[in-house]
Each structure stands twice: as C-alpha cells, then as structure tokens.
Amino acid sequence: MIRGIFSAASGMIAQSDRINVMGNNLDNADSQGFKSDTATLRSFDEELALRTTDAVPVGTLNAGVHVSGVETDLSQGELQQTGSSYNIAVNGGGFFAVAAPGGQTLYTREGDFAPDASGYLALPSGQRLLDSTGAPISAAGFRLAANGAYTNDAGQTGTVPLYTGTAAKRTDGFFDLTGAQGATGSVLLQGYVEKSNVNTVTDMTGLMEASRAFQSCQQAYNTGTDTLDKLVTQVGSLR
Predict the structure, then answer these.
(1) Is 183 part of a structural domain of the chain?
(2) Does 41 reside within a domain?
C-alpha cells in the first residue's frame, strides 16, 4: 500500500513537471526565437521482490516515474518579415552572441534588435549584439549581407558571427554553449525575425493529457491514503 501511494505521488510530481514545461512553451509561443522544450519521463529502477521467509526472488516492482530530463527542440522557426533594418533572422543553424549588461556572453536565436540608449544594436531586454571581435555594433545605418558581413554609418565593418556547440537552455531563455565554435552554412536575413518553434496544438493536447494523468494519480493517491488511514485507525481497534 505504501508503495502504491509513493508511485501515485511520483506520478503527480512528474505530470506537474510536464505541465510546467508545456505551459512555459505556450507562454512563449509569441516570443521571437524561442525554442520549445519537452519533459522526458522514465520509470525509476525496478526493485527485486523477495519472499520474506527465505529471500527467494518472486519478481520485480516498479517504484514510480520521474522526469529524467528536459530536451530542447532546436529546429527552425518560421521566418517573419518585419521591415525593420535592425531585425535579423537566422535561416539555418547557429546562435547570435550577445553581451549581458554584466558583461557575460550569452547565446540566442532572438533577433528583434533595436538601438539601445547608446545607439548599439540590442535586444529588448538589454543584451547587445556582438560582432566577430566581441565588440558591440552601432545601429546607425546598419547594413547586413546574407553571409554576415556588415557595415554602418559609424565606420564599423566586420561580421555578425553565428556559433554552434552543445547548447543548454538557461532559465532566462538564453543559451550557454559548451565548445562554442563558428557555425557555417547559415544565412542571415536583415528585416526578418525568427518566430517561436512552439507547436501550440501539440502542447495544448499534451497539456490536457498531462492534466488528466495528474488527476488520475491524485485519485489513486487519495484512495491509498484514505485506505491507510482506515487501516491505522479502525482495523483491529479494540472496543
């Protein structure tokens, strides 16, 4: 009985995690360059059941389920023309390098850049786009070729690079890249942004399925705890 309660509780936790992941996807369905996530479930390792009298194996027991990890879908999102010469979209693989206000280099597919207070290309949240030398790029008269070469009215010339590597999504939506190196074979489009690759139909369907599974686990948990309560308080009580 205790094992059944534990299994039901683990199912509730796992489904709650799935709901949170899919809910976050739907919340960011309109976020530029957002990449959707999927929670992967797997069962806990099975335990060998033994007879209490002589320890002879009688079979295995599954101890429940848990979220083993969250995988990010890095597939291409739809490209949308904006008409703004500051916006840039990636058609292909790779990430932009941007500088956080504290100086840390982060990676992103978000491309809705605009001039910040100092006239540099930056995201709405303040991170400045970096060129291949690690310098911020002036937005004045910014002109970009498909291969990433750029010029501007501030006299800068250079390249807007793209990077690839082992990507790990951060809680703020940006990425950390392990073994970052230059990406090749991609095209940069000025005046476009890449939309989120969230499939709202898939996530809405999955959200309803996970909610029903959570409710089923909750019912099993309540049944188990109610039965255990009766076993402790009523069965075998002396009158």
Answers:
(1) yes
(2) yes
**95 in any annotated domain:** yes
Residues 169 and 217 in one domain: no
Looking at the domain assignment, is residue 239 inside a domain?
A: no
User: What is the model's pLDDT at position 7?
Assistant: 82
- Number of helices and strands (H, E) in the chain? 2, 18
Give yes or no: residues 166 and 135 share one domain. yes
The residue among 34, 37, 114 whose CA lies nearest residue 78 is 34
Number of domains composing the chain? 2
Q: Scan for tokens 């409710």, then name that residue.
A: 215
How big is the chain by its Cα radius of gyration, in Å?
Answer: 26
Give the Cα separation of 30 and 167 in Å (integer): 22
**Can you tell me the distance from the alpha carbon of 192 to that of 194, in angstroms, rounded to the nearest whole number?**
7
Q: Of residues 149 and 58, which shows the higher confidence score?
A: 149
On whether the CB atoms of residues 82 and 59 are closer than 8 A, the answer is: no
**CA dist., res. 92 & res. 147, Å (int):** 12
Q: Dump pLDDT digits (tens) for 25-43.
A: 999 999 999 999 999 888 7
Question: In whole angstroms, what is the distance from residue 179 CA to residue 182 CA?
Answer: 10
DSSP string computed for 96-142: EEEE-TTS-EEEE-----EE-TTSBEE-TTSPEEB-TTS-B-B-TT-
Closest CA relative to residue 11, chosen from 239, 192, 217 = 217
Q: Is the pLDDT of residue 238 over 70?
A: no
Is 187 within 8 Å of 94 (Cβ atoms)? no
d(CA 85, CA 154): 16
